[in-house]
């Protein structure tokens, strides 16, 4: 984990959603320090820079290992779909698990499969809340919306249709995304997933994420939540739904039994960017 005055880390991204991974299997860093470490290391331009920090620890519930997730602002996240796919690759390549692995997360167990060197598939945590008709007001108008929470405690997503999304820029969408993210309709706030149906089973997606407080290049749980809502609404088939995020494309398959969802499968790319040693002066107290 640490060597002299350096903090070893791995930088990865899943479809452009980027993360810093720390190995805390020896439990040398107490949990109380991770929020501040996340705030320091995740700052763009001033440090390593990332959407979030992931920490690998021994599992407490029989998984191959445990994943803790912290957003760039230091807040703890319930789960992260792209992060889970990346950490599956990390676990496989660091000998922590085989080609099929089980990862303990704060919102439940996640199972992952290695497809090839870069592609990984995960079974997302089950939805604990699904409201397909959850209208919300923002920007001076009413927006149709579905609300989904994955896992327990649930990771909240507001799924909002936005025709012509591909022609809009993040700058043009940012104010609306921020207002919806903080809407009082959502008791925990929400990640806001703007989507547009481009063709049968092909969706474009742009997600404003809690904790990052901005748009990210991709959101795994947002991709899964959007495909889930659209499947239950009858707008997509639920089989290999293609979801195009700014940073890359992922595929979602929903297994259902009537109105009950049994599995949400998320498949997509991972990218190992680099491994390094952080020597940020502001980490001095942690080294």
Q: Brief description of this entry?
A:
The chain has 287 residues and is of the alpha+beta class.
Shape call: globular
Radius of gyration of CA atoms, rounded to a whole number: 18 Å
Beta-strand share of residues: 35-45%
Give helix % range: 10-25%
**Secondary structure tally, helices:** 4
Question: What composes the largest sheet?
Answer: 19 strands, mixed
* Number of DSSP E strands: 21
Q: Mean pLDDT, rounded to whole units?
A: 95
Rounded to the nearest angstrom, the distance between the terminal CA atoms is: 10 Å
Determine the structural class based on helices, strands and strand pairing.
alpha+beta
Oligomer: single chain
Q: Write the H/E string, N to C.
A: EEEHEEEHEEEEEEEEHEEEHEEEE
Runs in which pLDDT lies below 50 for 5 or more consecutive residues are none
Structure in words:
Strand 7 (100-105) and strand 8 (108-114) form a beta hairpin. Helices cover 16% and strands 44% of the residues. It has helices at residues 34-41, 81-93, 170-181, 220-232; strands at residues 2-3, 6-14, 17-23, 52-57, 65-71, 76-77, 100-105, 108-114, 119-123, 127-131, 136-138, 141-143, 146-150, 155-161, 191-199, 202-209, 214-215, 241-245, 248-257, 260-269, 271-278. The radius of gyration is 18 Å and the shape is globular. By secondary structure, it is of the alpha+beta class. The chain has a 19-stranded mixed sheet that branches. It is built from four helices and 21 strands.
């Amino acid at each position: 984990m640490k060597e002299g005055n350096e903090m070893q880390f791995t930088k990865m991204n899943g479809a452009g959603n980027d993360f810093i991974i720390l190995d805390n299997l020896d439990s040398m860093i107490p949990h109380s320090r991770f929020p501040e470490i996340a705030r320091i290391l995740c700052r763009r331009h001033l440090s390593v820079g990332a959407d979030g920090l992931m920490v690998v620890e021994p599992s407490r519930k029989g998984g191959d290992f445990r994943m803790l997730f912290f957003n760039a602002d230091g807040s703890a996240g319930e789960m992260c779909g792209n992060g889970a796919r990346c950490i599956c690759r990390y676990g496989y390549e660091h000998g922590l698990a085989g080609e099929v692995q089980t990862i303990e997360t704060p919102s439940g167990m996640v199972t992952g499969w290695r497809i090839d060197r870069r592609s990984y598939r995960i079974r997302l945590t089950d939805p604990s809340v699904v409201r397909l008709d959850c209208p919300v007001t923002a920007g001076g108008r009413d927006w149709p919306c579905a609300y989904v929470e994955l896992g327990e405690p649930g990771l909240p997503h507001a799924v909002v249709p936005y025709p012509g999304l591909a022609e809009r820029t993040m700058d043009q969408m940012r104010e609306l995304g921020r207002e919806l993210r903080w809407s009082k309709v959502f008791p925990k706030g929400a990640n806001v997933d703007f989507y547009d149906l481009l063709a049968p089973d092909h969706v474009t997606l742009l997600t404003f994420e809690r904790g990052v407080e901005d748009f990210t290049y991709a959101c795994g749980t947002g991709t899964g939540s959007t495909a889930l809502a659209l499947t239950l609404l009858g707008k997509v088939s639920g089989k290999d739904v293609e979801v195009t995020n700014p940073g890359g494309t992922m595929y979602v398959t929903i297994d259902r039994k009537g109105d009950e969802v049994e599995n949400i499968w998320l498949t997509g790319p991972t990218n190992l960017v680099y491994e390094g040693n952080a020597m940020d002066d502001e980490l001095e107290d942690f080294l």
